[in-house]
Specification:
three-stranded antiparallel β-sheet, 685 residues, alpha/beta, five-stranded parallel β-sheet
């Protein structure tokens, strides 16, 4: 088959096998000491191995593979950081072009994918999909296993260490941390910036170092992991919990003088860069260093020597007790603002969603490490209503108050709230005076996390645009919870430990009937047939149902049967909602305006298809596009939740379809729309 003009070879209508042959067991990327890779050979034979815990590398057998351009290495790095998870075309576009992507961006992504495939499988025919870098709909996955990827091996060793104790646990942690050569994808961090996925993997390392230190201190084997602690502390100089463990590890290894010097350096850095003093963990670690029974000259035994456990506020012994409390200012003693209570009012007619509420309750009861719930769903599906309702249900668990911000990720004004703007508001609410709020984003985020570390708070972040906007507003440690909403799928949520995505679907017919009954009372009970017609016309969309209810209540002479008749007469057009149709258009427009021009054009053409769902081939015919480009644009529409994938086809809600039809009639030339219909008929004939 000859590809269409403009379509890159190797990505046109590839049918994946039902059972791709498994990847052979791979060699370890590094030995257990994490020192040198295996020596290279000239023959490119053997299984594939990958490394992302440091510079991105790949081997076939024992020979390095040339990974090509920086863009190809970035694609591979994100696939490796996902560790077998899917990466969408939209994510790859965002990864490679932070702004102003070229018109042929989707083709360029597929070209990079094809070149990577042939680097991993040199004998692969040009148009074949291969068995390593595979496509799954509009997404890509890299097939790896626990021995072929250093990240998976690290995770397995950390899990084994967590289930062990004593010296075996320390040795497992040592092996896991030895796999790290630098930060995740360290060779691809231009200008010091890193993709959120790479930052999340770095966070796994920090968590493992903390756990390894605790295990080593208990077992008296701190010297085994001290090099890993030093390296991680160097990479995360503002992580107070990590720096506190470095002090304890140094003291336990007989290096008390070095530990005291390290504390002075950390305190100076916190003051210079964040404008804050050391928190409870660091102060407690320092006080433990003042125990004169511990040797400070390094002559003490390494085994069984360790400082007192972290006990914030505990006085030191000996002569130091006479000078207690310490002269050093203590943030915990500073006056704390009254607990903020910023939640919006709960919706008086909230209905349904019992399964979602129960799932959240079960998640929070089973997983004490949950730090964020990120709710996504199509426009008008009730994300904010659910988030506010959940926040009110859970508020009693968080006695230190609630924070709320509308991040304006999708807003008619177009002024998206920056993380800096949100953090300034939160810090002010937490009692930090304006003069005490740092100017730099990373300093604001550090101060914010430090204040939350000793609190249990609930933070509601509404209308988020992307993960970069959200990640700075997440707590670092402590028992706080973030509930966030977005009208697009926020990539990166599954990476950080404790962050859980929650997709919100349409209401069931029973839930929609309950919602209308709560709004309208006896009027709904008296006209069941009209209620059924309204539910069908609204398609389970809570916003549409609420608009019908408010319109009915606002016009006492307008009966439910009359409303149902108007909706039926409109034959699926938004005009059937009367003056309320403008509210639907406004809500839908916020997602529409976030599309690229190419995706917006395809969105306006989709209603020309005869049914509410269509294949990528039909979409390509509608837009007169190469199949690969059409798939990429459908993926973009899917990321904005304007269409939903399923069984190889894409579906559009009836009301979004009506909105797109109105836009098409307004913006597109009638002759071009007629030509699109003709192309679809020819393609499906």
């Amino acid at each position: 088959m000859t590809p269409r003009a403009g379509e890159p070879a190797g990505e046109s209508e590839v049918t994946l096998p039902r059972r791709a042959r498994p990847v052979e067991p791979a060699l370890r990327c590094y030995d257990d000491r994490g020192t040198q890779p295996y020596p290279a050979r000239t023959r490119m034979t053997g299984p594939l191995s990958f490394a992302v815990l440091g510079p991105v590398r790949a081997w076939r057998g024992q020979s390095d593979i040339d990974l090509g351009t920086r863009q190809q290495r970035l694609i591979l790095a994100l696939l490796l950081a996902r560790a077998g998870g899917a990466v969408s075309v939209t994510e790859l576009v965002d990864l490679l072009w932070a702004s102003d992507p070229p018109p042929s961006v989707v083709n360029m992504v597929h070209r990079h994918i094809g070149m990577l495939r042939r680097r991993f499988e040199p004998g692969l025919p040009t148009r074949a999909a291969g068995s390593v870098l595979i496509r799954d709909g509009a997404e890509y996955r890299l097939r790896t296993d626990g021995e072929s990827l250093d990240l998976l091996r690290f995770r397995r060793l950390v899990a084994q260490a967590g289930g062990s104790s004593g010296e075996p646990a320390v040795e497992l942690y040592r092996k896991a941390l030895a796999l790290w050569r630098d930060r995740c994808a360290s060779d691809l961090r231009a200008g010091g910036r890193a993709h959120p996925e790479f930052v999340a993997v770095d966070g796994e390392r920090v968590a493992a170092v903390r756990a390894a230190t605790d295990a080593a201190l208990r077992a008296g084997r701190v010297h085994a992991v001290l090099p890993a602690i030093r390296l991680a502390a160097e990479h995360e100089p503002l992580d107070e919990a990590l720096q506190a463990r470095l002090l304890l590890a140094l003291a336990a290894d007989g290096r008390r003088a070095e530990a005291l010097a390290a504390y002075a350096d950390i305190a100076r850095r916190l003051a210079d860069e964040l404008g804050i003093r050391p928190g409870a963990d660091l102060r407690a670690a320092r006080y433990s260093l003042l125990d004169h029974d511990a040797p400070a000259d390094g002559s003490g035994s390494r085994r069984g020597v360790g400082p007192a456990p972290l006990r914030p506020g505990a006085p030191p012994g000996g002569a130091e007790a006479e000078s207690w409390p310490p002269a050093e200012p203590d943030l915990s003693q500073s006056p704390r603002a009254e607990a903020p209570a910023q939640l919006p009012a709960d919706h008086p007619y909230f209905a349904g969603r019992r399964g979602v509420v129960a799932a959240v309750a079960e998640l929070l009861s089973e997983d004490r490490k949950t730090t964020a719930l990120v709710i996504d769903g199509m426009p008008g599906v009730g994300k904010t209503t659910l988030a506010v309702h959940l926040a009110h249900l859970l508020a009693g668990r968080y006695p230190d108050g609630q924070l709320h911000a509308n991040l304006r990720g999708f807003d008619s004004g177009g002024a998206v709230m920056t993380p800096t703007e949100a953090l300034r508001g939160f810090l002010w609410s937490l009692g930090v005076p304006p003069a005490g709020i740092p100017a730099e984003l990373h300093a604001q985020a550090g101060l914010y996390r430090s204040l939350l570390a000793e609190r249990r708070m609930l933070i509601l972040l509404d209308n988020c645009r992307d993960w970069d906007q959200v990640r700075h507003l997440l707590p670092g440690t402590g028992g706080s919870l973030v509930i966030a909403t977005s009208r697009r799928r926020i990539t990166g949520v599954g990476g950080p430990a404790g962050a859980h995505p929650l997709h919100l679907d349409l209401l069931t017919d029973a839930e929609a009937r309950e919602l209308l009954t709560r709004w309208l009372g006896d009027a709904a009970a008296a006209a069941p047939a009209a209620v059924d017609e309204i539910i069908a016309r609204c398609g389970g969309l809570p916003l549409a149902l609420a608009l019908v209810a408010t319109r009915t209540l606002g016009r006492p002479g307008l009966s439910l049967p009359a409303v149902a008749g108007e909706l039926a007469a409109a034959d699926g057009r938004l005009a059937g909602f009367g003056d309320a149709h403008a509210d639907l258009e406004t809500t839908f427009s916020w997602s529409y305006r976030a599309l690229t021009p190419e995706a917006a054009r395809l969105f306006r053409l989709l209603p020309l298809h005869a049914t509410g769902e269509l294949s990528p081939e039909a979409a390509a015919a509608l837009g007169d596009l190469p199949l690969r480009v059409a798939r990429g644009l459908l993926a973009e529409l899917g990321a904005q939740l304007l269409v939903q994938p399923g069984d190889g086809r894409w579906r559009m809600h009836d009301l979004l379809r009506a909105y797109a039809a109105d836009l098409g009639e307004e913006h597109d030339d009638p002759a071009q729309r007629a030509a699109a219909i003709e192309r679809v008929h020819e393609a499906l004939a």
